[in-house]
Amino acid sequence: MAAARRGDRRALEELCRREWRPVYGLVYRAVQDRAEAEDLTQETFLKALQHLDGFRASGAPFRAYLSEVAMNLVRDRWRRRGRRPLWLESLPEVRDRAAGPEATAAGRADRDRIRRALAGLSRDHRMVIVLRILDRKPAAECAALMKRTPAAIRQLQHRALSELRNALSERVEA
Fold first, then answer.
1. Counted domains in the chain
2. How many Å is the Cα radius of gyration of the chain?
3. Please, what sign has the CA dihedral across residues 164, 72, 20, 1?
4. Average pLDDT of the chain, as a whole number
5. Which of 158, 135, 153 is nearest to 60 (CA)?
6. What is the pTM of this model?
7. Residue 168 class from Cβ within 10 Å (0-12 exposed, 13-18 middle, 19+ buried)?
8. What is the domain extent for residue 18?
């Protein structure tokens, strides 16, 4: 990091090479479009590297900083286009090749039910579920992104999962 701040080309290339794939994956899951994800990832690195002097490693990894820059750019693009987030689309679709049309339809209905339940959660609860469970980010990285402590993230995750469980059980009863 120190060498990159001094403008060492090799250090900058190594930073980009090491962090490109995780940042691209995060952006792609948000926008669901390869070309747009590549553009936003490139924009993320340009913006982050231009402001490298402003990065202060306060226990958070550089990847958390890049993730925050990337998600801010994604939100800005959504605002400009009047588009709503597609993070719900990142729910995995598990297909059993031996399953018939009934099982496929039931799986699709379950995913839709989960999407609706997630959409009903508060922004923080939804974000912690997406980051911790769908993106499998460690608590420390989520803490840096959400400006909380790792312990607070774990507590928030527990509450979010409880709320999601309640929302899903209410929908089943209905």
1. 2
2. 18
3. negative
4. 78
5. 153
6. 0.50
7. middle
8. 1-89
Q: Which of 141, 123, 121 is nearest to 132 (CA)?
A: 141
In what helix (H) or strand (E) does residue 147 lie, and over which residues does it extend?
A: none
- Check: CB of residue 144 under 8 Å from CB of residue 68: yes
Instruction: Based on the fold, state whether residues 24 and 82 are members of the same structural domain.
Output: yes
Residues 40 and 84 in one domain: yes
- Token code pair at residue 19: 């962090």
Which stretches of 6-149 are DSSP H helices?
9-31, 34-50, 62-81, 101-119, 123-129, 139-146
8, 36: one domain: yes
pLDDT per residue over 122-164, tens digit each? 888 888 888 888 777 888 888 888 888 989 999 999 999 999 8
Residue from 49, 53, 31 nearest 40 by CA: 31
CA dist 5 and 12 (Å) reads 8
Q: CATH no. for residue 96? A: 1.10.10.10
